[in-house]
Amino acid sequence: MWPADSDSLAAAQRELAKAVQPRWLPGEAPVRVGGCWVCFPRGLTGRGAAGDPAWAAAVVLEGRKVVDRRVIEGQTGAPYVPGLLALRMGPLMEEAVRGLDLRPDVLLLDATGRDHPRRAGLALHIGAVLEVPTIGITHRPLLAEGVWPEDRRGASSPLLLDDEVVGCWLRTRPGVRPLVVHPGWGVDLESAVEVVKSTSGQRRTPEPLRVSRRLARRARTSANR
Question: Quick check: 92 pLDDT over 80?
Fold first, then answer.
């Protein structure tokens, strides 16, 4: 069960931050990389509200091939509040990923990990719930700070929160803004960067997230016709 209010979520996050995690490392065999994305109605502004329509898509890729997908329609559980993203869309993401027939070896999603007031953002939380290694990818840090890396593909630079490295900037393409990589459940920073680089190709956003974002947006368009 996901916490239903901010106080219970904050308590759960503090416990998650202290939890002993299994350690996942990419092996020599091809890795099944999942992606999960949630989108909301076009034109929605501000923080939104509980009950907003939402479309969640989850996919599994082997290399560049999509081998499984799942798209659901639902409602958000709360408005967006920094640090409390799990209240808004944690259950939606869980439902979409659990609906897959193939379990990903590692899951990418648009959320933070240790870059969080209680060191347990949604990328870490959903990994613990699903018992799946996770990596968060965002466009900017939540609280952490660090300078951008040099302008070449694969360059990275650390992001620190209270003198602790909680993630990094990563250039997936030269000449464009770097992404933030957040190690989530069971994944260290080095492995997270390796997965993101291997799934980005010539594009800025890793392919599992690009595909799941596209599917969620298509579902939204179909629902509004």
Answer: yes
